[in-house]
Fold this protein.
Amino acid sequence: MATAQMVKDRKSNYKSTHALLMTIGVVLCVLCWLPCAIIEIDFVAAFIFLFVGIGVFLFIYSSSVMGSFDTILKLNDEKTISGSYGKEDDIVYVNKTATIIMEVYWTTVTCIYLMVSFVTFDWGRTWIIWIIGAIIHHILKIALAKED
């Protein structure tokens, strides 16, 4: 139990580093064209590959570390001494129907979004479906979650 708690604490401490590395990776990938626009030398195109390569490295490295924490924590199930540390975020719903509804919720919202968008060709406004879907999802999650 102490080992699982230690891994959980390290994962919690790594979350800010993970967010920072992912942010730097995104910025490097998005702004990889910038040296080509500013500097006018022959080998400046190599900077695109360099920036994208470093960005992808940061994605892979940070995700691997975070994934290793998740893998170690998922080794603990209800049958082990450590309890259910790996399943802390799982929500238990009031019945099987509620569980099925919540499992297919985002797939259904995606289908509704695509159907409405393709029928109306109003892509500039139909994104509101995602906001409404998130609000409804939060309400359903609260309403259908089993009380402890």
